[in-house]
Amino acid sequence: MQDRPPENRSPDSRRRDWLAAIDSAADLAALGALDVALLGKTGEVTELVRGVARLPREERPAAGRAANELKVALETAVAARRAVLERSALDAALSSTGFDPSEPPLVDGPQPGVRIPLRRPRGTLHPITIVRDELVDLFTSMGFTWQDGPEIETDWFNFEALNIPADHPARDTQDTFWLDDGNLLRTHTSPVQIRSMLRFPPPLKVIVPGRCFRAETVDASHEHSFYQMEGLVVDEGVSTANLIHTMKTCLRVILERDVTVRLRPGFFPFVEPGFELDVNCPFCAGQGCSVCKHSGWIEILPCGMVHPNVLRAGGIDPERFTGFAFGMGLQRVVMLRYGIDDIRLFMGGDLRFLSQFDGVAR
Ligand code: DAH
Q1: What is the C-alpha separation between 170 and 150, in angstroms, rounded?
Q2: Nearest C-alpha neighbor of 244 from the set 324, 298, 177
Q3: Is the CB of 230 under 6 A from ligand 1?
Q4: How many CA atoms lie within 13 A of 289 on its CB side?
Q5: Contacts of 6 (CB under 8 A, 6+ apart)
Q6: For ligand 1, what atom is nearest to the CA of residue 162?
Q7: What is the mean pLDDT of the chain?
Q8: CA 242 and chain centroid, separation
Q9: pTM, two decimal places
Q10: Lowest-pLDDT range of 7-11, 46-50, 106-110
Q11: What sign results for the dihedral spanned by CA atoms 270, 273, 274, 277?
Q12: Is the pLDDT of residue 178 over 50?
């Protein structure tokens, strides 16, 4: 470039030469020198931009634009070439040292003087996730589909449509967190029964795992945020026998043993009849122990036949269709399965607790 004074060449050919020189700079040092010569404080292009001020007033705008555009084009070309050269300089440096950045670093091993690769713990699935996934596998294998619903619900979906009007005492047992706009944090997964009925015509088989909330004082068996899994089946001729069979199948898989169940009447406004389904205590085989409070039975699954008012709210004709529903507390099932005695452990974030479930899942 130095061989011909710039003014002897057309602007276009100068620009081409400069760009070509930048693109073929052999290493970072050559590129740096070029950068200074063109774009440095007294560089050729810097001078060119400066020279615009000395032109007659009417030529300045066009010349200024052209000079600036040239400067930006050269700066961009320098930056692009620098990235390429830096990358190949790094590759060369790494291959000459034999250093592989993807290898884990070495740390002291259990025996003195022996270095071993550092292993970072990968983390484990949360026990609630493990059991939820097993339940989802089981129910989808029986033809159920997994439905989600919002955690912020309307009063209508959470209560009214489930046959719990505003003055109903059942609301007292499900105190929750209310939002300023009149909506609430759902107290159970049951509102998704209504959402599913409104969305899909029967026959209908859904499960709804999800988080629920209540204004509870936290203790060993109560949490303000907890997980449930709702189930709903609606079809012609669905009976209590179908309900019991499905529940027994589910408990057999989750508790990994044959189970005996018993039904007691239970009141929930959205089912009629409603039941509390108990399973014979897996810890003492029904003999009586501290877990089952010496009764031999553990209350695990509230369920029942869907109330006609609920079917109607879901747009389904109760004269033609019947259904059953259940709602299990997921934490409760997990506690029973693994013999965990304090619900607070689930949310405590204590890795000593959480990492015990690694590899427990089948
Ligand atoms: N939603 C109820 C609760 O959280 C549990 C429940 C009971 C769900 C009976 C049901 C059912 O589907 O049939 O207390």
Answers
A1: 22
A2: 324
A3: yes
A4: 11
A5: 14, 44, 48
A6: 1
A7: 91
A8: 34
A9: 0.69
A10: 7-11
A11: negative
A12: yes
Average pLDDT for residues 139-161, to the nearest whole number?
97
Chain center to CA of 150: 15
The residue contributing the CA closest to ligand 1 atom 12 is: 326
Q: Which atom of ligand 1 is nearest to the CA of 230?
A: 12
Rounded distance, CA 125 to CA 112, Å? 34
Mean pLDDT computed over 84-98: 87
- pLDDT above 90: residue 222: no
Q: Does residue 7 register a pLDDT over 60?
A: no
Atom number of ligand 1 nearest to Cα 193? 12
Ligand 1: centre distance to CA 343 (Å): 19
Render 218-250 in DSSP notation, one character per residue: -BTTB-SEEEEEEEEEEETT--HHHHHHHHHHH
Ligand 1 and 329: CB distance under 6 A: no
Classify domain 127-357 at the CATH class level. alpha beta
Q: Is 325 in the pocket of ligand 1 (CB under 6 A)?
A: yes
Instruction: Kindly give, in sequence order, each residue whose CB lies less than 8 Å from that of residue 246, ignoring residues fewer than 6 positions away.
Output: 142, 231, 233, 324, 326
Tell me what pLDDT residue 5 has. 53
- Least Cα distance to 325 among 270, 279, 277 occurs for 270
Q: What angle do CA 42, 78, 100 make, to 5 degrees?
A: 135
